[in-house]
Design goal:
The complex is a heterodimer of chains A (703) and B (156). Chain A has five domains: 136 residues, Four Helix Bundle (Hemerythrin (Met), subunit A), CATH 1.20.120; 156 residues, no CATH class; 60 residues; 179 residues, Heat Shock Protein 90 (2-Layer Sandwich); 143 residues, Roll (SH3 type barrels). In chain A, 43% of the residues lie in helices and 21% in strands. Chain A has a six-stranded antiparallel beta sheet with strand order 5-2-3-1-4-6. A six-stranded mixed beta sheet of chain A has the order 16-20-21-19-18-17. In chain A, a hairpin with a 3-residue loop joins β17 and β18. The two termini of chain A are 58 Å apart. With 156 residues, chain B is mostly beta strands. Chain B has one domain: CheA-289, Domain 4 (OB fold (Dihydrolipoamide Acetyltransferase, E2P), Beta Barrel). A six-stranded mixed beta sheet of chain B has the order 8-1-2-11-10-9. In chain B, a hairpin with a 2-residue loop joins β1 and β2. The longest helix of chain B has 8 residues. The C terminus of chain B is likely disordered. Classes of the chains: A alpha+beta (703), B mainly beta (156). The interface between A and B is medium-sized, with 32 and 27 residues. Chain A: One of its GO terms (cellular component) is cytoplasm. Chain A: One of its GO terms (molecular function) is ATP binding. Chain A: It catalyses: ATP + protein L-histidine = ADP + protein N-phospho-L-histidine. Chain A: Involved in the transmission of sensory signals from the chemoreceptors to the flagellar motors. CheA is autophosphorylated; it can transfer its phosphate group to either CheB or CheY.
Amino acid sequence: MSDMDEFLEMFFAECDELLESVATGLRQIDEGTCEMETVHAVFRAVHSIKGGAAAFGLGELVDFAHKFETALDLLRSDALDATPQVMSVFHRSSDCLADLVSSARLSDGSEHAGKDDLLAELDALIGREEEVEGEIEFVPTAIDFGDFGGPVVAEGYIIEFEPDLDLYRSGNDPCALIRALEKLGRTEVRINTDKVPVLSEWSKENPALNWEITLYTDATEAEVAAVFEFVEDCCKLSISQLEPLAEVDLGEAVEEQIDPEAEMIPVGENDGPLVDNQGAPSAPRLETPADGRPPKQTDAAATATIRVSLDRVDKLMNMIGELVIKEAMLTQVVQTAGLATEPEVVGALDGLRQLAGDIQESVMAIRAQPLKQVFQRMHRILREAAEATGKQVRLVTVGEQTEVDKTMVERLIDPLTHMIRNSVDHGLEDALTRQRNGKPQEGTITLSAAHKSGRVQIEVTDDGGGIDRPKIRQIAEDKGLVAPGAALTPGEVDSLLFLPGFSSKDAVSALSGRGVGLDVVRREIMALGGRVMISSVEGKGTTFTITLPLTLAVLEGMLIQLNDQTMVLPITAVQETLRPDQASVHYIGSGGRALANRGKLIPIIDLGCSFGLRDAPGNLEDGVLIVVETDNHKRAAFQVDAIFDQRQVVIKSLEENYGRVAGVSAATILGDGKIALIIDPEEIIMSTTSEPARDRVALIAVG
Amino acid sequence: MLQTIIDNVMGKHEAIAFKLADQDFCIDIGLVREIRGWSPTTVLPHAPDYVRGVINLRGAVVTVIDLSARLGFGLSEPTHRHVVIIAMYEGRIVGLLADLVSDIVTISDDSIQAVPDIASDPAHEFISGMITFEDGRILRKIDLKQLLPDVPQTGG
């Protein structure tokens, strides 16, 4: 049973890739940039899912995939135009297929809501074509009914089969294939040696044989094609139906049609009459995908991959974390032993450090995944959101090859989903307003990603009306989130959107506007060590910018001393460090202290006090101030006892065995084997402000 | 091995006995991963007083709980003679600070008595049963589940 589970898991993993290629292919068709190969690729992917599903007895999946495949086949054989309506059905079918796959995976029997409707729509597409077919019954067209797998069964097939070198190389035997065909019915086999050169010019690199096989059978074309399933990408194959009429007076017709120059030599024991269907008047012909395949094959070969379970990579990453710690320990031991100045020791340590860094980078590269997977899903989210709101929206994705850590890819899905929905629902105006403002009716949402100065930046941009600041302000005031009349800059007003309990839409739609929108996004991004920023131009649109660290495993930190405890402050937040002089420190009231820095007064926060390590703030002269900035550009100066190092630290979860600690984002292990806590500067600043409601707004809103 | 199986069938368990403020306690041996000597911890801010902080256990961050403080005997002054019992409960690893580990004892199910109803003692709720021995010794069985700090799961 566990073997079977393993296979099933492999099948589902494969399904994910196939579904992705279906979705990508359909979009390419949408854009009109596609070639026939794209259609083939989509068809093949759906076909593979169907095949796999059939092997595991997933009936529902098979049925749907089959219908989908049939409709796609019409597109493939040019019997159906890729009109927007048709493509919409295909897109939704692809979504539904994905749902069916995931429901089969969870085996929870959940149904895709629109499945039956979709089946009906697909039927309509297929049916329409069949009707059209009926009208032009006598005109020979290139429509293949073979794949319908049921109603239309030909009397037989003519199979032209020319193996490529690869077929022989991979150990396939044409003879075995022909024997397999014989099992389906009576065969007549001709070998065509036309292209075989004279012996002196012959090379084994150039197999020039081809076969023409006439097969009399009641099997469907799919069954016939199945014989060649494993070789279809290394041979030229054409399967065409035998004209039923021609078969009746086969002998005569064939006799007449023999092309004397064709020089067909019969092989095998099937010494039947010579058949040449070149002249057969209406043999519908379908090129199998095999022909279009070679270029794609080379693509695939260029990026050879292996599947490795994530556990193994995680384990490797953990061990590298240990290596980094051990290396720090060694450095410390060397130092205490007084060897730190020995050139040989220093050289060896440097070498070790470099190697550890390289290994860490390589493993991070293994864990890195292109954002494509996430972006891909957003197309669907957008489609559903557009449908729900009745707006016309187009999603443009840029930089989907940008790579981020695997865990981050997974955890980005929810926030991005929220943001896309938000942009469709709140960001874009309805078609009428757009028209009035001289914009194209169809709204555009751009999802872009790029690496920027050691971080990943993701942007969601809409070309909507921008943020309606007076309205936002009004809502915030109504909800008591901000004091009426408070002086807020436009940036501050924009930031109100991130407040918990804020919902700007008057009417709560099914899509968004439950007031759990953007503050959740913000929290989730912050949990990933990222930041969210917002910028908006009235009438032009809104941009949400997310910046994320490259990895969740390692962080560049500043080691600080607080009483007898060592703590780590993420370097990304640090702006500058300074020893305060009396002139720049100002006292406000009894306990308040502020630092004049870069022309602004910023609060001084004693970290020892905020962590409860001491009761009263330490003497400023004894300490060091670190100016930090949060993603809202809110600045503060942290007072610490000393700064003694800056280094890479491995992030260890604190929540796993204990839970969350206010002001602490995680823990790490230092060179001496002790644990140090990693400070969350944002939370410290938040928590040290006294009045939560009002001050929090001001804090968040300082943009 | 065989003895263990026989013991299990007979309704017998092994437990680690340890001392705290001159009282004998025990914890099911199946929950115990290892026993270490005390080493200084990293203090967790805003933690209850019985949470001594965290230590590094081969790369894992492990919380150390001062059993003495948790059971109401007051904070212990750990020395190098103190021990930390590393236990695992439902996937969470926790270190328990105790005075010393005294014994490994075999206890049978029928020797476990309910805790006498002495209300309002903090130790009461962390003890799941009393085990009496023929020589008059009494072991208090620790309920690890009750012992673990309840940490509010804020945020994600």
